[in-house]
Protein: GMP synthase [glutamine-hydrolyzing]
Amino acid sequence: MENQKILVLDFGGQYNQLIARRVRDLGVYSEVRPYTTSLEEIRSAGYCGIIFTGGPNSVFEENSPICSADIFELGIPILGICYGAQVMAHLLGGTVQHAETREYGSTDMVTDQGSALFVKVPQTTSCWMSHTDFIAVPPAGFAITAHTSSCPVAAMEDRERKLYAVQFHPEVQHTPQGQDILRGFLFDVCGCVGDWQMSSFIDRSVTAIREKVGNNRVLCALSGGVDSSVAAVMVHKAVGKQLTCIFVDHGLLRKNEADEVEEIFRHQFDIDLIRVDARERFLTRLKGVSEPEQKRKIIGEEFIRVFEDEAKKLGKVEYLVQGTIYPDVIESGAGDAAVIKSHHNVGGLPEDIGFKGLIEPLRDLFKDEVRRSGLEMGIPAHLVWRQPFPGPGLAIRIIGDVTADKIRVLQDADAIFREEIAAAGLDRDIHQYFAVLTNMRSVGVMGDERTYDYTIALRGVTTTDFMTADWAKIPYEVLGRVSNRIVNEVGHINRIVYDITSKPPATIEWE
Ligand SMILES: Nc1ncnc2c1ncn2[C@@H]1O[C@H](COP(=O)(O)OP(=O)(O)OP(=O)(O)O)[C@@H](O)[C@H]1O
Ligand SMILES: O=c1[nH]c(=O)c2[nH+]cn([C@@H]3O[C@H](COP(=O)(O)O)[C@@H](O)[C@H]3O)c2[nH]1
Ligand SMILES: NC(=O)CC[C@H](N)C(=O)O
Ligand SMILES: [Mg+2]
Structure:
């Protein structure tokens, strides 16, 4: 049985992924698709509801993202949020205007409890606003169901056509009744029953993979990280021995990591594994390259070339499995979102790929959801809770060009940092921590001699979904020990700094 599902139609907002997430948290499957998705596709996918997201544009400006007005004729219930609400008003003949002042932050709101959205919400409540434009006049057939002191149409609905719109953001935590409002839309308006759980996601994915693959062989790009391990186990559940995993040692892994991954994987799982020594070829291609996006693209391409070479040795392989997850996709600039960085497995992929297609069963999930599905499939907790390590590895933690010597220095410094964090019992509390070899050299004095050597930056963050993160408040004693050990034990380092920026404005990795 197919699960019911909700389409989150992406108009370029910041919280699109959060909307999808909140819907899944309510037990309803949801997926984010661009606003350009064709009506035919939407109709045939059998969605039981659509949510229009917010977005940075103004509906009345030229070239703003707009969908076809025929979407309202599909008979599928729609909820517009913020820009999405304005799209609905604009397309159906209402008036959207630019306000003199922005409405931003927590705002008192009066609701009509006769609305399916507000039955569980007090008449006077608060909501979180982030807009300048507003709906001045709703389209014909719409009733106003909420207002604030400066926003005449905080919510409107055409009950008969099942079209709903809210100017505020029910998906953010600062709208205290937000989940009740979404629940009202999903359950009362769309008729969702809440039939989705992680286990049904797994079952459905396994079935879909089995159908897609048929009798063919598949390769899985396995890094030993959480995402690809979960993807591999899922594909193995689907097609068993037709799956071969390829683990690439590109020479940019952490100290001793290649051996550790091989050891763990061979013992833990009954899955075919090939370890490829590609250290030479990656280092050769990266020689003299210092621009971060260029490094990422070279690595993305070289990964694919290695997979193609291995596939040839195995005979005919149709599909490549990757452990791509949602943040990889959105940061690589999916839909109308900006390119933050090209993740090697998405934006860094070459155009010509020697496979019929990719299989990415986790593409719509967040890290914490991937972990939940890993635990559900019986992957041991110590693997599921490993901290993430980016595919391009130390190449994006060495600022500037990458050389074998720099890799060694960084591996040693990073190993000390990780050892001390573990010794202090902090490895579960800090969700990702690592050392960065900055390209900066400075003057120091060691053993009464002048030194002119590199600076290591330490980075530690706390986060749940890796989309936003705070810097970890590592105790000074621990930082002190790490600093001492690195300058004493690792050559060519004479200065250590700790990175105290959150994401945003920084990102977790330095490149
Ligand atoms: N060394 C590698 N060998 C083979 N495939 C890799 C390697 N590094 C990354 N990949 C592929 O790229 C994908 C994305 O890497 P990413 O680091 O985001 O995920 P992961 O390694 O599976 O999990 P984690 O985020 O926990 O490190 C992986 O899921 C895997 O398919
Ligand atoms: O597989 C990956 N390929 C990449 O190209 C890549 N870039 C960043 N990351 C990881 O993604 C999370 C968010 O990182 P940023 O805040 O640096 O964007 C962090 O966990 C990063 O380690 C990557 N993972
Ligand atoms: N957050 C939003 O979706 C904003 C919508 C629109 N850009 C406005 O300013 O009103
Ligand atoms: Mg990884």
Observations:
- The mean pLDDT is 93.
- The pocket of glutamine (ligand 3) is lined by residues 13, 54-58, 82-83, 130-133 (CB under 6 Å).
